């Protein structure tokens, strides 16, 4: 009985810790890219993206404001579609000549982003953490 009680307490503590870090879009996120690839239909393989020295390459995602701030645009990207399932937060949008989609693992915060236009696509992987507000 004592062992069962300890197991239940440990499970409750673990469940609370996971729920506290639920990446469900209710809080803004700061996402740091770990690696990315530039893919075009004329190449046999994708080229690795190299970050610019000294540039903040983080993505700032704010589902409540329906926007994503990237280091490569002055204006925020609008989030046009949000989905939430048991595994992922799913975001999608378009901007003039391209389409983008992102998934954030709801438990770990792992990020996958794809950006496509008529020339090719970028695939970016990274890690999100919960933040208070997106960078200004």
Quickly list its features.
136 residues, mainly beta, 10-stranded antiparallel beta sheet, 14% helix, 43% strand, globular, disordered N terminus
Structure description:
This protein has 136 residues and is mostly beta strands. The protein has one domain (2-130). Helix content is 14%, strand content 43%. It contains one helix and ten strands, in the order αββββββββββ. The chain has one helix at residues 2-20, and strands at 29-39, 47-48, 59-62, 67-69, 77-78, 81-84, 88-95, 98-105, 110-116, 121-130. Strands 1, 2, 3, 4, 5, 6, 7, 8, 9 and 10 form a ten-stranded antiparallel β-sheet that branches. It is globular and about 40 Å long. The N and C termini lie far apart (54 Å). The model is unreliable at 3-20 (pLDDT under 50).
N-to-C SSE string, H for helix and E for strand = HEEEEEEEEEE
Low-confidence stretches: 3-20
Helical content band = 10-25%
Strand content: 35-45%
Number of helices: 1
How many whole angstroms does the radius of gyration measure?
A: 18 Å
Shape: globular
Largest sheet: 10 strands, antiparallel
Count of all domains: 1
The helix-and-strand class reads mainly beta
Query: Whole-number average pLDDT?
Result: 83
Distance between the termini: 54 Å
Oligomer: single chain
DSSP summary, beta strand count = 10
SSE arrangement:
Blueprint (H helix, E strand, L loop, with lengths): L1 H19 L8 E11 L7 E2 L10 E4 L4 E3 L7 E2 L2 E4 L3 E8 L2 E8 L4 E7 L4 E10 L6
Antiparallel strand pairs: 1-2, 1-3, 1-10, 3-4, 4-5, 6-7, 7-8, 8-9, 9-10
